[in-house]
Amino acid sequence: MAKVRNRRDFEALEARRREGMRLLGRGLKQADIARRLEVSRQTVSSWAKAREVDAKAWRNKTLGRPGGLTDTERKQLSRLLMDGAVAAGFPTELWTLKRVAALIEREFGRSYSTVHAWRLLKSLGFSNQRPASSTASTGSSCP
Predict the structure, then answer these.
(1) Using the 8-state DSSP alphabet, how is residue 64 labeled?
(2) CA 53 to chain CA centroid, nearest Å
(3) Is 82 within the bounds of a domain?
(4) pTM greater than the 0.90 cutoff
(5) CA-CA distance, 143 to 37, in Å (whole number)?
(6) In this predicted model, what pLDDT tens digit does every residue of 5-41 receive, in sequence order?
């Protein structure tokens, strides 16, 4: 049976970090804050260091995995794909997942696996197609 992965509740994480900053501001010990909020002491220590630099540091921290392509970049990728593989610098017009991943890395500086490249293509409305055989294009038939 597949293991179900829980999604992180980013609003709850931010609320906990906000509470930690508030408690640090009241002068509570880091160990007490860690116990109260059920986080590690190292986490509270990093909050305290960030608070020394900027009192509103908890607002600046982005949570979760870095985002993928922006909407503008996704539109640009669609245009590049529609222009064709040869126009993108590949030797033939055949788009493969490896080529799409290489294009994304070259144009946008983000490394995508072939699986994620496929997911991205599906979300952009592209479909899985196999190239027509060379005999079909020449009109000859195979025995």
Answers:
(1) S
(2) 28
(3) yes
(4) no
(5) 73
(6) 556 777 888 889 889 988 998 999 999 999 999 999 9
Q: Hunting for tokens 């509470």 — which residue is that? A: 19
CA dist 72 and 77 (Å) reads: 9
Contact 69, 104 (CB under 8 A): yes
Gap between the Cα atoms of 47 and 49, Å rounded: 6
* Token output for 64: 């979760």
Written as one string, the DSSP assignment of 18-38 is HHHHHHHHTT--HHHHHHHHT
Residues 76 and 30 in one domain: no
Range of the domain at 53: 10-60
Q: Which tokens belong to 130?
A: 């196999």
The answer on pLDDT for 103 being more than 80 is yes
Amino acid at 138: T
- Number of domains comprising the chain: 2
